[in-house]
Every structure is written in structure tokens, then in C-alpha cells.
Amino acid sequence: MRGEQLAAVLLRLSFIVQQSYLEVSREHGLTPQQAQLLCMLLPGPVGMAELGGWLHLEKSSMSGLVDRAQRRGLVTRVPDARDRRACQVALTAPGTELATRFYDHVSRSLAALADGLRADDRRRLALTINHILAAHGVPVAGLPVARLPVADETAEAR
Amino acid sequence: MRGEQLAAVLLRLSFIVQQSYLEVSREHGLTPQQAQLLCMLLPGPVGMAELGGWLHLEKSSMSGLVDRAQRRGLVTRVPDARDRRACQVALTAPGTELATRFYDHVSRSLAALADGLRADDRRRLALTINHILAAHGVPVAGLPVARLPVADETAEAR
DNA sequence: ACTCCTTAGTTCGTAGACCACACTATTCGC
DNA sequence: GCGAATAGTGTGGTCTACGAACTAAGGAGT
Question: pLDDT tens across B44-89, in order?
Fold first, then answer.
């Protein structure tokens, strides 16, 4: 029951987190990737390159992802004033509305996973996970909170 | 810093776990889904329906997943002796070898995520996560350990 | 100005993942 | 037997993701 045990529980926890995320995404008519994209745009417009870095996606993958979200009217590409090559991806009004509702819903669902825990266990869990995240220069994970100083925002993601 | 916080850290932890899994999969020439499939077959052959249940996949999705793994020579479909409709998916020799190496590697990588933690924090983390898993009748997550009594194997996954 | 290099994004072709739906073959309950 | 449920396949479609080739626009140095 060494590291193997910890690896196994981490993986299985990750699995149910992903399933929850998937389920909530579907209920809002989104794919998980689109939902993640919208959430990352909630605090404000972001450039394609930066988004790709956060999500660990190649730029061509980003183009496709944003294309599809744009086709659904959830985001728009705003030309960057000081660099005519670049563009910023921004939420539309319906996109903002949807993202907000989704964010709220998924936050509840995920927090509910720990409902069976005692309050101080929940607290300790959050702290411990934060230690892990901080130690790995976490690069965003689909919630705008990612841009708050939970982990080192300026640090390189590896 | 209410439940929202916990939701955020859970999600971000899940993100880095998935990234680790993805990275190791790639190093072994596998997609994460194929890697997960192989790992679930390590303890022995399993029927398509059961696999689909564990992975939350429709049967047609299972067909494709197994097809591709079979095309690569990693698994075979063994006709079920007592039900001529059914078949069991089993690892081939190369499949077993690859799955074993992958499992070993990914276990190390995931356990390494918690390297910065103190030993008793790691222990407590594993215990707490186990509580969450047990409370949610976890349905397997890509490691054969899934078939051990960490969570209730017979319980419905919702 | 004028090359050369880098950077931001798009386009295209390919492969995998996943689903819904329609379909076949078998088993089971009565 | 007969009808219903079950195991699995096949089809068509969308989404995800990648690499390679490409365009357009900065930036550096001479």
C-alpha cells in the first residue's frame, strides 16, 4: 500500500471529478472542453496563445475549439489593437450567461462530492491539494479561479 | 473560500492528474483511453458490457475502442463459452507487457505528484479521498486496483 | 530600407473518441 | 415455441487533437 495506493485513489478521484464535469457540461449543452474554455474567459478576454498554454493545446487545436464555440455564438474574436496578427477571445452576452450558470452548477456538483466529509476534513483536504498544486505550478484547470493566486500565476507551468 | 474553493482545487488536481496520465500514455504510444482499457484488463478478461459500464461508455463506443486496440494487437476478443452472443476482451502477450509497463510508470508518476507532502499528510490524503470514493460507489478508474474492495464494487454508480 | 527570424493564427488532412440509431444473433421467461 | 430483453456490430456524424504547411505581422540587425 505504498505510492501505488495513492496513485490509484488520485486517479479514481480524478475520474469521478471528470464524470461530474462531463455530466454538468452536457446538461448545459456543452462539451467539457467548451465549458472549460468559457470558464477561462469569464474574468475577461484572452489571447489564443495564452489559452493554448493554459489548456496544453496546440494552436491549431485552439483554432478549432474557438471556431466551434464561435459558431454557437458563445464567443467572438476581437482583433488586438496593438498587434494586428493577434486576437482576443471574448465571451458574448449569451456566452457569459451560459458560462456563469455552468460555473455555478459545476462548483456545486464538485463541492458536493465531499459532502460526506467532516468540515475539518474538507478544510484539510483543500489545503493538502493546494500544496500539491502549488508544488506543480498548476496552469489553470477550467475555472476562472485559476487566475487567482492559489498557485503561482507567473511561474512556468513546468 | 466556501465550497467553491474546494471545487476549484478538486478540478485543478484532476487536471494535473489527467495531464500526467496523458503524458505517460503518450510515452508508451497509447491514447489515454486505450491505456485505461489495457489496465482494466490486467486482472483478466472482461466482457464488453461490463467494460462499458466501468468506463461509462455506450456499447458502440466500446466496439470502436476495442477495435482499435485489437488492430494494434494489444487485445483479442475471446468468444464466451456459455453465451454465444458475448465475447470477452483479453490482453495479448504484447498487450500484457505494455499494460504492465504503463501501469508501473503511471503509478510512479502519480505518486510523485504528492512528493512534496509530509508522509502523514500523504496518508491522510489517501484516506480522505477513499472516503469520497466509497461514498460515491466509484466505478473503476483505469487501474486494475479498481477491482479491489476500495469502493463497493457491487454498488450502483448512481 | 531591407533581409531574416520569430510570433500569432488559420487551414488542411488524419486519426481517435464518442454518441444515437438501426441492425443481427442469442438467450431467457413464460 | 414466442416475444422481450441482452450482447454486440455497423453507420453516420460531431468533437477533439495533432502536425505540417501557410499567411501576415512584428522585431532585430545591418
Answer: 999 999 999 999 999 999 999 999 999 999 999 999 999 999 999 9
CA atoms within 13 A on the CB side of B68: 14
Whole-angstrom Cα distance, residue A105 to residue B61? Answer: 28
pTM over 0.85: yes
The integer distance in angstroms from the CA atom of B110 to the C1' atom of D4 is 47
Q: Which three cell numbers stand for residue A37?
A: 474554455
pLDDT > 70 fraction of chain B, expressed in percent and rounded: 85
Q: Is the dihedral of CA B116, B119, B123, B125 positive or negative?
A: negative
Nearest nucleotide by C1' position to the A82 CA atom = D26
CB neighbours of A29 closer than 8 A, spacing ≥ 6? Answer: none
Nearest C-alpha neighbor of B145 from the set B130, B124, B125:
B130
C-alpha distance from residue A29 to each of A16, A90, B153 (Å): 20, 19, 31
* A141/B5 touch (CB, cutoff 8 Å), yes or no: no
